[in-house]
Amino acid sequence: MHLAYPAVLSALLFCTGLYGVLARRNAILVLMSVELMLNAVNLNLVAFDVWLSRTARDTLHSGQALTLFTIAIAAAEIGIGLAIVLAVHRNRGTADIDKLRDTAEPHGPDEATLTEDEKAEATA
Amino acid sequence: MSLAAATHGFLSPTGVEIAFLLVGLVTFGAALVTVTTRQLVHAALWLVVTLGGLAVEYLLLTAEFIAWVQVLIYLGSVVVLLLFGLMLTRAPIGRSPDADSGNRWTALAVALASAAALVWVVVDAFRTTWIDLDGAAAGSTAVTGASLFQNWVLPFEALSVLLLAALVGAIVLSRKAKAEPSPPPVNSRAATGSSPSVPDSRNHPIERNSPAEQEGAL
After folding, report:
1. pTM score, whole prediction
2. Best of B16, B18, B66, B120 to mutate (most A CBs within 10 Å, chain A)
3. What is the CATH code of the structural domain delimited by B1-138?
4. What is the pLDDT of residues A101-124, one digit of tens each?
5. From CA A78, how far away is CA A32, in angstroms rounded?
6. Which of residues 14-53 of A touch B (CB under 8 A)?
7. Does the structural domain A4-93 have CATH classification 1.10.8.140?
8. Out of A102, B176, B200, B216, which residue is the most buried by the measure of CB atoms under 10 Å away?
C-alpha cells in the first residue's frame, strides 16, 4: 500500500478536527473534535509503525505502543473534560464556550460593562 | 527503494488500496458531517461512523489489536460518554442554530490552509514509499503484547497511575463543591452500609450520574 494514503487521510482528519475545535460553540462538540484530532494522530502512528516494522526492522513497535498510550490518555482526557464541562454547566447553566468570558480581556465598551456586571455578581 | 518503487504504481492499485481509499472517503465524509452538523446528537452518531471507519483502516493496515481496542474504547465508551454529556448538559434534540460560533469562516480558512500545507508536505515526502503488507501481521495481539511487555513496561505502569489519577480527578470534579449538611437519617443510613451517593441522588438526580459514567469509561 502506498504510504501516502494513510498519511493524507490522517492529515485531512486532523484538519477537520482543527476546524471543529475552532468553529464549534458547544464544549462537548469541541471535545468530539479533539477526539478526531487524536484519532488522526493514531492513524499516522499505526501506518508508520507498519511501514517501519518491515523496512527498518524496528522491533520495538513503538508506533503501536504509542497508539495504545494515546487511546488510554484520550479516554482519561474525555473523562476529565466531561467532568469539567458538567461542573461548568452546573454552576453557570450553560456549556457554551462563547459565554464563558470571565477571564477574557475586554475589547469594546459593551463587553467591558458586561465583565463589570459579572464581577459585581461574583463579588455580591 | 527505487527497485521497490518500480514494482508499484498509482495506476495499478491493489485491492487493499482500493478498500482503504473507499473506507477513507466514508471516514472523512463522516468526520466532515460531525464537525458541521447542527444537530448535536447527530454529531455524536456520525462520530461513531468516523471511529468505526478508522478501526477498519487499522484492520487493513494489519494492526488488528489496535483496531479492536479502538472499537472497545472509542465506540464502546467514549461515544457513550459524549452522548451522556450531551444529555446531562440538556443539549437540544433538534436543530440548534447556534452550534457554530461566529468565527467559523476564520476557522475554515485556518483548516484549509493547514490541510493544504500538510497534504502537500506529506505527499511530497512519501511519494515513493510503499508499505509492505505481505507476510505476518505487524500488529497481531501476540506481537503487540510481546513488545508492550518487553520494551514498554515502565510507560505502561506509569499510564496505569495516570488512569488512576484521572479517575479520582473525575470523581472529585463531579461532586458538588460544598457538601450540604445531611439530615440525621441520611447519616444513619450511610453508616449502615448503603451507598454514600444515595442521599445526594435524591436532591440532584441528573448530575449524580456523572461519576459512575466516568468510572465506566476509564
Report:
1. 0.78
2. B66
3. 1.20.120.1200
4. 777 777 655 555 555 555 555 554
5. 9
6. 14-20, 22-29, 31-33, 35-36, 39, 42-43, 46-47, 49-51, 53
7. no
8. B200
